[in-house]
Amino acid sequence: MPAMAELHIGTSAFTAAGWEGSFYPSGMKSADFLTFYATKLDSVEVDSTFYRTPSASTVTSWNRKTPNGFVFAVKVPQKITHEKVLVDCEEEFKEFVRVMDLLGEKLGPMLLQFPYFNRSVFTSGAQFVARLKPFLKKLPKDHKVAVEIRNKNWLDAAFVALLRESGVALALIDQSWMPRPWDLTGKFDLVTADFTYVRWLGDRKQIEQITKKWEKVIVDRKADLRSWVDYLRPIKKRGVTIFAYANNHYAGHGPATVAQFLKMWEKNEPLSRRQILPGERTLFD
């Protein structure tokens, strides 16, 4: 069994309304947020790349502000996944990869986050797979790629087999209308690459009726997170590296979700790197 599987965990984006004073020290300049973040966690999922490919100078700055061993997971721009839906987007994708490569060894998985598609776009999951397959064949083999879908009926053996054949990870999500991985246990193996990609998303519409300031936990997710620990621990023992990211919409405060998960995880397996620094016991010290 491979012995060097890792756990990389962080939040979806490294800043949000309400984090100053609850995660970042009050008065800290926003230009210092990423450097501080990297003293607490060793990975982040960058949300801003979903809206557009960032400038080379921005990506170079991310690289400069983080230490060796830090990992960036990046969302592929929505122009590719939502607007063009993988059609005639080769140049946009190549440009995105070119800019992301400025991160060097800090570049982790690139996430193809697809929306829910109604029947006016795809009449079936098979039709989506037929669109996805040629795109996956053109992916650069030396890059990690994950795919997220939000049509629950498309999570079938054919779709999972395509990802496995392509060495692409299926994004495992905890989201309001999608089944969670343990609901699918016994149907097929959801680990389709040498890494897996977890996203704690929650119910955006419901939580935003309560708050849009992400400074504290307002939804109790302890039981859910225990289930994730129980589900992911055997996967890591298989030698599969885990990338996991908490969205504010999951419980109200992404950093607190991460802290809860790590506390549960650490009970049976010591953490390493910046997940808990020497002398630190929480992310909020």
Notes on the structure:
By secondary structure, this protein is α/β, with parallel strands linked by helices. The protein has a single domain, classed as TIM Barrel, CATH 3.20.20. The protein contains ten helices and eight strands. An eight-stranded parallel beta sheet has the order 1-8-7-6-5-4-3-2. Helix 5 runs parallel beside helix 6 and helix 8 packs across helix 10. It is globular, with a radius of gyration of 18 Å. The two termini are 36 Å apart. About 3% of the residues have low confidence.
Comma- or semicolon-separated keywords:
alpha/beta, 285 residues, eight-stranded parallel sheet
Per CATH, the class reads Alpha Beta
| Individual helix count | 10
Q: How big a fraction of the residues is strand?
A: 15-25%
How large, in whole angstroms, is the Cα Rg?
Answer: 18 Å
How much helix, percentage-wise, in residues?
Answer: 25-40%
Please give the alpha-carbon distance between the first and last residues.
Answer: 36 Å
Bulk shape: globular
Main beta sheet: 8 strands, parallel
CATH superfamily: Protein of unknown function UPF0759
For the secondary structure, the number of strands is: 8
Low-confidence stretches: 273-281
CATH T-level topology: TIM Barrel
Average pLDDT over all residues: 93
Q: State the CATH architecture.
A: Alpha-Beta Barrel
Strand line-up of the largest beta sheet: 1-8-7-6-5-4-3-2
* Strand/helix succession: EHEHEHHEHEHEEHHEHH
Q: Give the domain tally.
A: 1
